[in-house]
Design a protein that fits this description.
211 residues; D-Maltodextrin-Binding Protein, domain 2; 2 domains; five-stranded mixed beta sheet; 11 strands; 34% helix; elongated; binds 1-O-pyrophosphono-5-O-phosphono-alpha-D-ribofuranose
Amino acid sequence: MRYLTFALCKGRLAKKTMELLEKVGVTCEEMKDPDTRKLIFVNEERKLKFFLAKGPDVPTYVEYGAADIGVVGKDVILEENRRMYEVLDLGYGKCRMCVCGPESARELLKKQELIRVATKYPHIAKNYFYDQKHQTVEIIKLNGSIELAPIVGLSEVIVDIVETGSTLRENGLKVLEEICPLSARMVVNQVSMKMENDRIGKLIQELKAVL
Ligand code: PRP
């Protein structure tokens, strides 16, 4: 039997994902060691491999078949736009993709003005403003702490993830428009879905039963 390989997101989602997989008997003891510098973990008994990658790289591993299965946020799936199947909403990591800014920016969004939009998600922002709202904007790519941009005058608004809303509140910003809801999803390589249909199909059914 060949190994079934899972690409998981480093960070917030990883622990929840392992907890969920454990519920259906997909376990990896090695991975629980907090001091390990290992990148790849094996469950010999069940012929499974797991590795942790940066979120935006997970769809890349899955599209190329370096991982059969991935667990990643819907935000990353939308941004990366890779060829793969999204098979399951795992229900955790719930948050929203929003246009945010100071209250004063609300008018600018209504008037279809040429505004600057800072974001870690240029593809999602472009799709929303150009294709859905038909508003021409300038998109500025940032890599984190996006809320800074409207505060220091880099942009009028941002497109970013809102979970509890506390980052916005503490910085005097508001949700101005909601783009879409987000959560963790399971994705599968298109060839693996055919070649390993029995094993992957069974896993999906088992996960559905515990979700
Ligand atoms: C995310 C997001 C917001 C924040 C939202 O950032 O970009 O800044 O979390 O969460 P809240 O609504 O619960 O306050 P993250 O912490 O992942 O880091 P980043 O700023 O480096 O992107």
